[in-house]
Design brief:
It is built from 6 helices and 4 strands. It is α/β, with parallel strands linked by helices. It has a single domain, classed as 5'-nuclease (Rossmann fold, 3-Layer(aba) Sandwich).
Length: about 120
């Protein structure tokens, strides 16, 4: 299964979004291989503009399963934040949380955000 980050959803949902990401998200959706998490859903709703975008997001959030944000996820996110700071890097908390969710639930992560490259393995 693949957790699609907000950054990838944005590209996939835009008419002029990155064609490679649009294709990858579409293929994953067609294969039933996409899963959501609550922070991505919140970010999508927070950025929704207009009825057409809200309708797309509603379809996504009503049809795809979600993985839970457990205590283990939060602990992992804290560990990732510490590791980033120790290397002199600050990564947004939302990206740390998404990375932690993917790691804890052993999911592939599809993203279009350079912050994820800064998170140590």
């Amino acid at each position: 299964m693949t957790l699609v980050d907000t950054s990838a959803w944005i590209e996939a949902l835009r008419k002029d979004g990155d064609s490679v990401l649009r294709s990858r998200v579409g293929a994953l959706l067609n294969a039933g291989q996409v899963i959501l998490c609550d922070i991505v859903v919140l970010e999508l709703w927070n950025g929704a503009r207009g009825g057409q975008e809200r309708a797309k997001i509603r379809r996504i959030t009503e049809t795809l399963d979600r993985v839970p944000t457990t205590q283990t996820v939060w602990t992992t996110a804290n560990t990732l934040a510490t590791a980033c700071r120790e290397t002199g890097v600050t990564v947004p908390a939302t990206d740390l949380l998404v990375a932690a969710i993917a790691r804890v639930h052993e999911l592939d992560l599809l993203e279009a955000d350079r912050h994820f490259e800064l998170i140590p393995d």
